[in-house]
Amino acid sequence: MTTSREPHQRQQNASPWTGIDRAVERGKLHSFPPGDPGAAGVLFPHLPRAWIDWVRRYGALASGDKRRYLLGSPRDGPADLDAVRTTRVLRLLNRLPPDLLPIELLPERQVACVIATDERAPVVLLDLDNIDAGLVPWAPTLTDFVYEWYSDLSSIAAVLRHLEKQERAVREGRRAKDQLDRPGDWTITRLCSEDVVLAVLRTRHNRVHNRQDISEFATAALTSFAPGASVRAALCAVLSDAYRAGGPLAAAFGEQGDGQIPGSLRRWAAARGIHLPRRGGWDAGTGERLYALATDLTSATRGLLPLDGLSTGAVCFAVASGMWQPLAVEALMRWSPHPERILTGAIGVTNRLSWMVDQQVSRTALTVAAMKRRIERADQRSASDDDDTAMPVEAVFLDPIAGADACLSGVSLTVPEGYGARLGWAVLAGAEPVARSVTVHVLAVENDLLPTQLPALAERLPAGRLIVVPADANSSTDLAVTEALDAAGAVGLTVLASPDYTTTLDSTCDAAVLRARTART
Length: 521
What we know:
The protein is of the alpha+beta class. It contains 17 helices and 18 strands.
């Protein structure tokens, strides 16, 4: 089978700005008479050819409603659109780095800039109130940035048209005010963090082709989040909708399935070893790999999935929906004899023995994940910061102890100095180990079981290990519990009380199992 090379050759010979030219001709974008791009040479010894070519073509660009502008060097445009003038002002008032050439001023005193010393003309985002925080990559070239900027404008316009159509249907009595969208309807989703919009999506479940259709996928680059955080959140939302709709994790862009995949998403996937085409979408297998990466499943969990025969969608949805944290999922898959019962909600209400076993493993997994998260947050000012900004702590699962439950096998964690006080977890017995790498064993049982199970565990552990028990022990007045804690400390073990009681852990597990059971439509 042979294919013609002519379309590819025409694409190579065509101007990179053909699509923008068409948008200007149709009135979707407004351009200004170009001025002198060489005026920027006073501030920059060398300017990228892409920027000079762009300015010579358009001077500056504005959206169709003239609410957003790209700076340039217009001859008859407003002075605020002059990139040279803006550069001088920002250098004087905000210590703008000398290699940055502003191209768009954004709300919250953020500015998109071209790196003028790089011939590729990459675009980065800078927070003028926190310049020392550094630059956030936005687009690898100026051409990519302009096209993605125009794509975002088109996406927002399409979303507004969709909402206007729904409002008109409500006014005409063809739609109820409180009517919910069905999986097969086009649905608008806005992802926010407090008052900051991360992404805007327009999707539906296509039952004919058994896939998720994505007509709009607009994401924001923000200095307050890690690079790619908004793309990851949007991708996670799309694939979670696909799982809830009952289909595979295949997806296609555009209303006809032949639309262009956003460059930000392709770059995010490529950085993680998945190369997506420029147009179309992906199959179910690729969707599973993307979902596992978007939900931050540990590499070990991704390796365990084929062995346990669990659905990748079910495991990823358990994390994406907030039911379980990635480390807790790995703990469940390592320690539970039947992890699918917990992660898919397939626990029989009448099988009390199986539920007791699953409950014990779930308590342990929740406690280990909570401790790891608290360690990662130990040096942060706020626990509400984006997950991508946390300092990761590696958790190494150890082999099971002979004659003990698998959930008591332990996890090796790297902890900060004085972790007991810094994490807010009370030390009930022993002394904090000097070593930074600590092996943690969780004994997530009620007070009445501690006097028998704590000594039994202590007999198997070498000195220097750490045992975490629920908060029940911290408030216990039982003499047998006190004696068991003293005995553990006497043999060189540290016993730490977590902030959670067993009743809290059980209710969290109950809610996660119920939600997993009813997740899919």
